[in-house]
Amino acid sequence: MDNGMESMLDMYLFETNSLLEQLDEILLGAEKAGTFTTDDVNEIFRIMHTIKGSSAMMDFSSLMTIAHRIEDLFFFIRESSVESLDENSRQELFNLMFRSTDYLRADVAKVENNEPLNTNIDSIIEEINTFVDKISNKTQSDATSSETAVTTINPVSQLPEDGSVVFLKIYFDEGCNMENLRAFMLVNALKDSCDDFTFYPSDVEKNSATCSEIVEKGFLLGFRQHEDVEKAIHTINNSSNIQTYEVLEVPTAPATNTPDNPKKPSEHAGKPRTESTSSKNAATSENSSATPSATQHVANKQSLISVNLTKLDKLMAIVGEIVITESMVTSSPDIQGLKLDNFTKSARQLRKLTDELQDIVMSIRMVPVAGVFQKMNRIVRDMGQKLNKEVKLTLIGEDTEVDKTIVDSIGDPIMHMVRNSMDHGIESTETRIANDKNPMGEIILSAEHTGSEVIITIQDDGGGIDPARILEKAKKNGLLTKPESEYSKKEILALLMMPGFSTNDSVTEFSGRGVGMDVVKKNVEKVGGSVTITSELGVGTCTTMKIPLTLAIVDGMEVSTGNSIFTIPITNIRQSFKANAEDVIYDAKGREIIKRMDNFYPIIRIHELYNIETEITNIEDGILVWVEEGDKSYCLFVDELLGEQQVVVKPLPTYLASFNIKNSGIAGCTILGDGNISIILDIGNLHSASNQ
Q1: Does domain 3-136 have CATH number 1.10.238.10?
Q2: What number of helices (H) and strands (E) belong to the chain?
């Protein structure tokens, strides 16, 4: 695939996925309201028209065909009004639309993965056609009785005498179905350019039995002005599903005998003109038919562009290298001790510009979590129907922005937790009523910023988790590493995230396959986050995910212990201070603690935690750095502070994962200006590691 086609494919995937997400939101909102508004119908028609055209242009026939049928369906609904549908028909329409969008989404996923598209789409097309037949009251008996009432189109030699001077006879593509609606759509399109014309059969809008008449004898358009014929031919050439058209002049019409008539189309008379009017060409025509002034207007209003994420990744990598190089230049041993005023001034300006460049690049990559959150509405809706549970989803903090890479990584974990809440979190309606709870369950999905990270919670008001049951299951599977009595509630709930652990005894459509929370934990940790579970039996369960805002560049404080250098994220530091031996006291277990602002905080000695040799062991000789993250707050004892430094976060090699590095308080590493490597500390996990 050349670059041009690849670019078109990227744009197609971006646009189609966005439209399908928009469609899901419309459908979910309409289903809650119990009906479609006029705006809903028009918007769905527009979405399907766009997907049909772009899919045809990319030659994705299955996507094009499904979208085309749905477009026809909503054209019919738009013309006949939603109010004509009864309650059962509306619910059937909702279900049909959700199934149709699933078909479309599955095919788009195949395109993304470079897999062959579905070739057998007969079942979904049949469903759509059957539904159209149903709501248009089309039955075999109706068709038989109404056919006798349809005015027969006169053959060419006996054209209708309605004052028309030229007729166009149109034949639609074989097997395109719903010819009466296609004819009516063409009539509506012609009204924009032609003032006065007639058409036969004249009742195509309301009489579906005219389909067979149109298939057999064609659809006839009559015009009193030759100018209108030319306009009509232009419209026909830009319409889809038209196989051929024929220009037929009325022999007695004076205009046809005028030799100097500049608009005279007599050279076409009686000659069928077959156009390659497949949807693919039609889509191309639609896209290129805008006038120059309209195109210019759109260009002036354009304020957003879509950029391939790979390009942003490369840009961020280059910015990271610029930051490292800037640090190497300003920290070069060759200039240490020299008084270089101009160099220092330029270095400050360079740092200012690199900071601005970093901020801009990071802001470009930031996207709201709304896209991920909104998708959960569909999960709750579908599972609620299958499990016969009434559940509402409440979304909080949808505008919270996170790095695009992280947003893509947390989609699956959030979906899994929502499914967990639906499957074995929320009880059945009968159970909730018996326990004096609201018959309708609730899942709250929220996101909020806290400094350098985003906290995402998935909370339900279901039955909660029974710690005894988890402990029993873990014991049965041989997962316990110490006596049962020594496990705290927090540790018991953490067992849920061990590989292969499942509390379901039987496999269902949604769970019980032994692949669950461990995958959630792994995916979140892959982007530098952490997962914790809290639960109260009978009240509900809450899963909390702490995710870094970005994976790229952080402001850090460099500290040393022995010959090792560590980086502490600035956002985690409250203050640093010197302490005397008498300031340190000991808790009941003999661990060092120190009082700060009327509270006592534990002291963690870095050299003891990581077995680093150092001469600085007395509390007076080193320095304490008071750090905190979430509900954890403590003091780190290090040799000295080296200064603030902007660092580029580099992931640790994957083979180190088997050594449980993440739980040792290490988040990653960075390359310093002098070429040395500094370990970036994970303040949240460091506290836990010191207690092991």
Answers
A1: no
A2: 21, 23
